[in-house]
Amino acid sequence: MNDTGNKNRAVESECGPFHLSQLRGAQSIVFTKAPYLLSAASVAGSKEAQGPLGKCFDLTNEDDLFGAETWEEAESNMQKEACVLALGKSHVDPKSVRYLFGGDLLRQGIATSMGVEDLQIPIFGLYGACSTSGEALALAAMSVAAGYGDYMLAVTSSHFGSAEKEFRFPLGYANQRPLSAHWTVTASGAFLVGSHLNKIHSDKQHQRKSQFRHIRIAGVTIGKIVDFGLKDSQNMGACMAPAATDTIYRNFQDLGRTQEDYDQIITGDLGYIGQSILFDLMKSRGYDIRKKHMDCGMTIFDQETQDTHAGGSGCGCAASTLASYILPKIENGEWKKILFVPTGALMSTVSFNEGASVPGIAHAIMIEHC
């Protein structure tokens, strides 16, 4: 037998056929024992509270500072509140959570590190731009499915004030926004992923019932960095649409599926411009997803009454929409199977000032009613 065959046999011997049997195609995993989404929580700002999903969020605040003195501290407060709410809904103590996967848009992920510090959960800090909720959920689900712990927590956030200061101009500058620009969502979403559903104890005083009883993460398709050479950081929809196309197409190819296998294909924050590009790119590959597509950035705001131009964006956009609006529809069986595809534009002020292009990335999470 050649060297490749020997290596394959060695891998199967060390890892066992259980883990290898979960791999699909080039980039996907279908879990043999799918982890459950036990609970989720969303915290949002004042503009989001005035939008179409305002009544769906767990907590909103008219003061976008959330009692803090800075935008950054406010974002940290949102993350902490979202985590505490998600844990409380399933009556799980932070000490029972093995790992936390979290991230935001700020330098060195300070909104996350300072936000979840008091929980004292071992943490992996992530950065996938606006796709971070997909990255966090994928890693949490993979860790539970691999047996690394019974509970994992995934959390992301973004804040309009902190993001503008980080990537564009401080709010006090009052710069003119182009019509292609997105409005960074002020919100946080947290998700508790578990290996089993919390059981209902006979003692009514000590019931532990999960918020969700019928949601599982069936698998994931991890995205690649896709760069079409676009350099306009104020048109992130165009920068991210090629990555969304690549990941959705790869999910179809890896699993032998089409858009008809999903009730909804939900992107993170392509907005109105990015959506039209996504439709064209998918059509060029032989798929028409127009009747199945939803975009969180187009759902969280009302384009006619709220001045958000191309739509919403930011780590908190997809995360808060998933927690507040999408998961309840899966729980009640309205949607049986969705493909959740948060999208991110991988840029910084340094890369922009140096004239670099803005590549994109997208991760797909297969979420099912069970």
UniProtKB/TrEMBL annotation:
One GO MF term attached to the UniProt entry: acyltransferase activity
Species assigned in the record: [Ruminococcus] torques
Name used for this protein in its record: Stage V sporulation protein AD
Lineage: Bacteria, Bacillati, Bacillota, Clostridia, Lachnospirales
InterPro entries given in the database record: SpoVAD, SpoVAD_sf, Thiolase-like
Record gene name: spoVAD
